[in-house]
Amino acid sequence: MEVVEIPEEPAPRAQFTVDDVDIEILPLIYEIIR
C-alpha cells in the first residue's frame, strides 16, 4: 500500500495526458467538422 509515490506523479502526468489527448483529439475534431 504505497500511496506516497502516487500523489506525486498525478500532477506532471496530468499535464502530459492533456497534451497527448489534445494532440490526438484535435485531428479527430477537424475530421469530424469536415
Automatic annotation (TrEMBL):
Protein name per its UniProtKB record: Uncharacterized protein
